[in-house]
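Format notes (please read before filing issues)

Several people have asked whether sequences and structure tokens are stored in separate files. They are not. Every record keeps both together, in the order shown below: the sequence lines, then the token lines. Line labels are part of the format and must not be stripped during preprocessing.
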Amino acid sequence: MSFLTTWLEHYGYWVLFFALLLEMLALPLPGEVLMSYAGLQVFQGKLDWLLAIIIAGAGASVGMTLSYWIGYRLGRPFFEKYGARIHMGPDKLEKASEWFQKYGNKMLIIAYFIPGVRHITGYFSGMTRISFRKYAVFAYLGAFFWVSVFISLGKILGPKWELYHHTINRYLIIGGVIAAVIFVLVYLYRKYKNHIISRTTSILEKGIQHFHTMGKVKFILLAAFAGFVLFISFIIGLIQDFLAHEFALFDEVTAYIIHEMFDPSWTGWMDRFALLGSYYVFMPLILITTVWILFKGKDRALELTFFALVILGGEALDEGLRSLFHRTGPSPSGFQFPYTFPSEQTLLSLTVCGFAAFLLVRHYGNVKIRITALLLVIILCLLVGISRIFFNVQYPSDVVAGYVFGGAWFSLNVILLEIFRLLRNNEFMAR
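Then the structure lines:
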């Protein structure tokens, strides 16, 4: 690696271009580290940020193009005979071929962030005769997205590059793997949707005494239950890391990146973002949602009851958790209740705004409205969390814990609301 960085310092863009080209041909080169180091060169004024991204993206794209046509022309017999020499023997070839046939070229964008996977996608795209036009769209978009992330990361880290880049690279790889897993799960759900829903509904129906319901309710219960299980698993990991005092590096790196991305000129905007996580925003939203339920709700009393439970229970849950973990924030606080784990603002933002959005769009069939509501809640929660870190009043791990505990509380109440709705509707039908 020191050899490559030395060459990068002397020959700049040429090394960036050819190193990424060769890595896409499955040569064992440390592309992420090289790109983040190029970002450091950008920070030092030795390289231009936009030009570095264009040249690096072009190198990766040329490499992906060559690997596609090699796979297309030489095909399976060549790799079965000679593949072991480039770490692509028959066993690995067969497994990768099965994987690629199932999930196709849409995985290309995510695959760049997974070492080993990005090196073979071009070959297998050619071997499986995927249309080059389709392949090129995803491969080139993924290449430029990949290089933009790592070069920008190196630029942001600047003088802290040597200290943090290995840690952040590991987080990005983990994020890529998680994204790939989510992609596969979505793919499997879409392909086997009816089977999954029928099996899961059968289990849920046994749990609620074999009551029957509409397909939409089944899907909501399935999604909420999956979310609840996911958040509970995250909670277990968070508690283990908290007890082992393993948040220090994550907090240090994340806080550094936030403060590098948002300088003091963002203070005015951050004040506004912070308000999004307060009752200045919650109260109007609560009022609007209450009025909406009274005029448009299907089970008004039930929905109002659960809405109140989510709000009051969320407050109680947050105070109880902060008292239990007893962790003081990064800045001295004059408040009587200075504990910050989990973040009160992110927990309540997710539970109050998320559940309000759920109730507002619950009976809408328009998919665009639902997606828009989901994106608005995600953006609002992210802005609130960023503001907490920016003002140095909470640790990044406090913010993440708020999301995780809030997500568990939100999904649990969605499950309970829909089960009670089922019970109520079946009682009504029985009469």
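For reference, the curators noted about this record: The chain is about 80% helix and 0% strand. Residues 2-170 form one domain.
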